[in-house]
Amino acid sequence: MAIRRHGQKYGTNEGFTLLELLVVLSIIGLMSSVVLVSLSGSRETLEIKTAARGVMMQMIESRSQAIRSSSEVRFFLNITQGEFWTEDSATHQKFPKGMEVEIYTAKSEQGENDTAAIRFFPDGSSTGGYVRLSQGETNYRIAVNWLTGKVVMDHEKKSE
């Protein structure tokens, strides 16, 4: 039995037609594919951002350790092995495969086998330099000020 109120029926068993369901499912499928395409590029961005933050945090920790211990601490990076570490660290952190790594530092901190360092001093200063990470269209530059030892990370899009 249907109840009428002001000319409208309530309580009837009207549902969706098959055509309406197919249209809704098509729209959901289309939106899902758009989301998946946009997420595929963000994985690469997430990898490089995580690696850049890891480098930055290791540099900041190296500077803090130099000040705390009143001794010099070096942050190392090996380009061919794709890894970075500090002098006291037993473990080396690796960069994701396919990431381009570049380091610019003082000549005295450039070692053998594509290994270079940035040295942090007990007064907070450093030898200075930067590490640039590139993957796809994204660049991150982690710079260390030689006078203050301050570590700053900049994000850049590659320009061609």
Topology:
Layout: E1 3-5, E2 8-10, H1 18-69, E3 73-78, E4 83-86, E5 93-94, E6 100-105, E7 115-120, E8 129-135, E9 138-144, E10 151-157
Antiparallel strand pairs: 1-2, 3-4, 3-7, 4-5, 6-8, 8-9, 9-10
Roughly what fraction of the amino acids lie in strands?
25-35%
Global geometry: elongated
CATH third-tier fold name: minor pseudopilin epsh fold
The DSSP helix count reads 1
Q: Radius of gyration over alpha carbons?
A: 28 Å
Structural class: alpha+beta
Can you describe this structure?
It is a single chain. The protein is an alpha+beta fold and 160 residues long. It has a single domain (16-157), classed as minor pseudopilin epsh fold (3-Layer(bab) Sandwich), CATH 3.55.40.10. Helix content is 32%, strand content 32%. The mean pLDDT is 87.
List keywords for this structure.
alpha+beta, four-stranded antiparallel beta sheet, 32% helix, 32% strand, minor pseudopilin epsh fold, 10 strands
Structure described in brief:
The protein is of the alpha+beta class. The chain is built from one helix and ten strands.
